[in-house]
Amino acid sequence: MNRLFSNALLILAVALLAVLGAGQTLGADVAPPAPTPTAEIDSLDTAFSVSTPVHSIIEANGRYYIGGNFSDVAGEPQAFLAALDVVTGQLDPNFRPTIVSTSDIDRRGVRTMALSPDGNDLYIGGYFTEVNNEFRSRIAKLDAITGEVDLSFNPSADAVVEALATDGVSVWVGGAFESLNGATSPHVAKLDATTGAAVAGWDTYTNSNVHDLHIEGSDLYLAGNFTKIGPFVLDGAGVPTFDAALTVDRVARADLATGAVIADANGIDAEWNPQAQHRVLDIDVAVDGSLVYLAGAGPKLDGGNSLRAIDATTGDVVWRRVNAGDYQAIAVT
Length: 333
Prior knowledge:
Blueprint: H1 7-22, E1 54-60, E2 63-68, E3 72-73, E4 76-77, E5 81-85, E6 99-100, E7 110-115, E8 121-126, E9 130-131, E10 134-135, E11 139-143, E12 161-166, E13 170-175, E14 179-180, E15 183-184, E16 188-192, E17 205-206, E18 210-216, E19 219-224, E20 228-230, E21 233-234, E22 240-241, E23 246-247, E24 251-255, E25 280-285, E26 291-296, E27 306-311, E28 317-322
Antiparallel strand pairs: 1-2, 2-5, 3-4, 6-9, 7-8, 8-11, 9-10, 12-13, 13-16, 14-15, 17-20, 18-19, 19-24, 20-23, 21-22, 25-26, 26-27, 27-28
């Protein structure tokens, strides 16, 4: 991925816009209709080019914040995190944080970002170990304008942070980690947005990686490779077990405040369970809240490589589009 935006992501965004506008309900194995182009896409200046993949993009404060495993932007050294002017694509000289990532696979850097609602605070997660000469293990909070590290926020994670979401009061964290703040916290945590301390009362965790988190109203949507969600206990070897947790299929919806898993509309099942057969890499919600979109990986012939629209109330599949490879990102407008 040598440019900030890939053609595939842009086409997907236009396709979703067309489907939402049409308001059609299609069978589970029927793809949405081919979209009618609704806008031109400006050609991209070479200033947007980066050396290696971009994993996360946020537009705010007149900038595109980009995070990934790149080492330079438009030929200028700037590793893993950068801010670009939305008009010119030039690097913002006032936002130049220095990030050190020592992962043994291409120094994979920043994997995810979340911005506070007021636009002042930028939370970053990934594989890094240092930000602006301050030790930060895979998660950090920066001033979104200057790039300075918030010294009061330092919840160290023992493995990669892949997902972040914030409402300005709390920060929800997901990934491959087993501990956060030195305490066992399998793959999910809810933290105080100011101090980074774990929020009391949260007792929802997963038995495998969380790849994405999305806040929608009072709900938190979780997507990943997990099959259990809920409380855990440590066995004799100190390994988390999920005997009392609910069985789900890589997607779940929980109460934003407590972490309690949401029941379906009929109140019959104890969980809202769309039953994704393989890893879900990204999740987003329609503007009116009626549909949840899942970007999936896995073998094409076994229910993978699919983009699905899920009924937000029942969890039923409304439509599905199958691709020759993984769907990795969704943008709904």
